[in-house]
Each structure stands twice: as structure tokens, then as C-alpha cells.
Amino acid sequence: MNVVLNNPVLYVVDYPGFDAVEVIDKRRGVGTLFRDEAAVRFKRELRDVAESATEMDDFESLIADYGSLFNQPAVYH
Could you give the CA distance from residue 16 to residue 52 in angstroms, rounded to a whole number? Predict the structure, then answer.
């Protein structure tokens, strides 16, 4: 398990042994788990945004594209 990103908008954890990435939208308190090719695509898009981001709005735009897939409540313990 590797924490890839932890900012005011997103929390992203990579599970390399499972070819998966977990993404939490902190603003809405929901998330999802991407597997296989979907995980690869999300990590690539996240990397591209992170390299060019100048403000949090850039990350918000990224997750807006995936918004309907974020349907699991995030439970903090």
C-alpha cells in the first residue's frame, strides 16, 4: 500500500500487488476502487494533472470526470 496523494480534495492509495488504486473524494466523503486498466488510466491522468496543476481546481476537474463512479461512503477510523 502506497499513499500516492493526500491533499484537501483527494486521497489516493496505490495497491501495486493487486493492480488497484483507491480514490477518496474528501469533499463528498465518497470513493471508489479502480482495478487493472482503469487503475492504470487513473494513475496516468492523476500524474498528468499533478505535473501541471497550479491549484486545487485542477484536481477537482479530474475527479469531476469520474464523479459518478465515486459511490462508496468513505469511513474514517
Answer: 24
**Closest residue by Cα to residue 4 from 37, 50, 57, 35:** 50
Which residues lie across from 10 on neighbouring strands?
A: 25
Which whole-number Å values give the CA distances from 33 to 10, 13, 36, 54, 70, in the listed order?
13, 9, 10, 26, 9
Q: What is the pTM of this model?
A: 0.85
Tell me if 52 sits within 8 A of 10, measured CB to CB.
no
pLDDT at 77 over 70: no
What is the layout of strands, in order, in the sheet containing 30-35?
2-6, 10-15, 20-25, 30-35, 72-73
